[in-house]
């Protein structure tokens, strides 16, 4: 269902996130990061990154809507998708998004009885692995961060596939995680 090369894909995604953070860093001077979120939709070949700053009025999440990424000031600061805008383009992730969608579509065609949730699960797990990657956390260490800073791999449709990572360590799923 998922290509064997997802370890390589995860490593390349971590490097792509570092490149996006390098490009975006000048806009974050003097700010303290509170959360970095990976928002992925494998069935659309869509990857994007959002940042929440410490002290933002928009909550990290609420009980009704779950994650509120779109309300963050730095929502979708890097987007890899066929319809991406030039200003927020994420060229380092474009081929990764295409690979993800191609593999997802092939798996769906090979077994139409498998749910989207099952087909997408390996891609959320591959993104989780990228979010735990030491290269990414080395870059994040160069930013000022809140005491509760975390990285979230977000699945808006299924909180058990949304992962919470702190200091490169998986803490659990968003559905189970209680922020201090």
Question: What is the domain tally?
Answer: 1
Q: How many H/I helical runs?
A: 4
Q: What's the arrangement of strands in the largest beta sheet?
A: 5-2-1-6-7-8
Q: Mean pLDDT across all residues, rounded? A: 85
C-alpha end-to-end distance = 37 Å
Dominant shape: globular
Overall description:
The protein has 180 residues and is an alpha+beta fold. It has one domain (6-23, 32-173). The chain contains 4 helices and 8 strands. It has a 6-stranded mixed β-sheet. The protein has a two-stranded antiparallel ribbon with strand order 3-4. Strand 7 (163-166) and strand 8 (169-173) form a beta hairpin. Helix 2 (91-110) packs antiparallel against helix 3. The mean pLDDT is 85.
Outline of the structure:
This protein has helices at residues 6-24, 91-110, 116-131, 134-140, and strands spanning 33-41, 46-53, 61-62, 66-67, 74-80, 145-154, 163-166, 169-173. With 180 residues, the protein is an alpha+beta fold. The chain has one domain (6-23, 32-173).
Secondary-structure map with pairings?
Layout: H1 6-24, E1 33-41, E2 46-53, E3 61-62, E4 66-67, E5 74-80, H2 91-110, H3 116-131, H4 134-140, E6 145-154, E7 163-166, E8 169-173
Parallel strand pairs: 1-6
Antiparallel strand pairs: 1-2, 2-5, 3-4, 6-7, 7-8
Helix pairs in contact: 1-2, 1-3, 1-4, 2-3
């Amino acid at each position: 269902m998922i290509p064997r090369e997802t370890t390589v894909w995860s490593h390349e995604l971590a490097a792509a996130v570092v490149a996006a953070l390098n490009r975006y860093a000048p806009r974050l001077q003097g700010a303290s990061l509170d959360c970095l979120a990976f928002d992925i939709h494998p069935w659309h070949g869509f990857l994007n990154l959002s940042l929440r700053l410490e002290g933002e009025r928009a909550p990290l999440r609420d009980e009704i809507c779950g994650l509120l990424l779109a309300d963050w000031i730095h929502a979708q600061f890097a987007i890899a998708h066929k319809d991406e805008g030039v200003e927020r383009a994420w060229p380092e992730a474009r081929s990764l998004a295409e690979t993800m969608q191609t593999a997802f579509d092939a798996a769906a065609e090979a077994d139409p009885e498998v749910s989207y949730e099952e087909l997408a699960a390996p891609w959320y797990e591959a993104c989780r692995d990228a979010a735990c990657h030491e290269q990414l956390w080395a870059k994040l260490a160069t930013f000022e961060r809140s005491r509760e800073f975390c990285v979230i791999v977000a699945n808006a449709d299924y909180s058990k596939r949304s992962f919470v990572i702190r200091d490169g360590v998986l803490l659990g799923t968003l559905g189970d995680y209680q922020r201090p």
